Amino acid sequence: MANSTNEQGGAEASADALKELDRVTDALLGEGGCPWDIEQTPWTMTDYILEEAFELVEAIRADAPEHSTEESRSEVMEELGDVAFLLQFVAKKYSQAEHFSLADSLKYAAAKMVRRHPHVFGDLHLNSEDELLSNWEKIKRAERSEDGEAPKRVFASLPKGLPPMLKAYRINSKAARAGFTWDSDDAQEAHLQSEWQEWKEAEASGDEEKMQEEFGDYLFSLVEYGRRRGLKASMALGDANVKFLRRFNHIEDVAREKGQDITELSLDEMNALWDETKKK
Description:
Blueprint: H1 4-8, H2 10-29, H3 35-39, H4 46-62, H5 70-96, H6 102-115, H7 118-121, H8 129-146, H9 164-177, H10 185-205, H11 208-227, H12 233-257, H13 267-278
Helix pairs in contact: 2-5, 4-5, 9-11, 10-11, 12-13
GO molecular function: nucleoside triphosphate diphosphatase activity
InterPro entries: MazG-like_dom, NTP-PPase_MazG-like_C, NTP-PPase_MazG-like_N, NTP_PyrPHydrolase_MazG
Protein name: ATP diphosphatase
């Protein structure tokens, strides 16, 4: 896969590509364009954006450094373009309604990043990542005050539609930036052990409602345990899912080579193949 950006010069190549994408979008939405595209609204496009975003995330995770290939990088390139197209498409819809353009959004984002990185674009000195993140939250809240609005609540910007495990990570992260967290990793680990004990007690009681509650509390604390060690639970679980599926697919392949269906193998046979796959 040729790197056309390096060949043409980064900023110029990106600008040319955006112009081409803009030309394509104009044709699709203009007179004589695609009837289906023309009748869409930003609201009707939301599911497509989510779907393509998930496909992009999946492609990026499949391109992890330890098994990155030309094919996996090409997949990321393609999915990134799909997401970019949808964002351009939605922006064009707003532009047609004379609300704002993609240029307005990009300029706003650039200005916001400059404003929120005074340690890069200003003379602020920060000593740690914790200070950086805390300062980021302070700037976000100050922006609202400058606009004449009451400062937003700490979790006001948390998307309601985030998957639960990712949302738990963001909640713990934002709480920590606000200073509401355990004083040390040891204290948090002790809390995690306490949550595990509460889960075991709920399990022993047989109370399904209590079991649900305590299992959730334990998972929430486990997400924070990982966050404090630089681990994102959703990514770790995603990797575990991929690993399990890869190994199980191998078992199915071996069964087919023997002319068998996976359901015809005994548990001992499947376990033996599983152990064999783990060694690879």
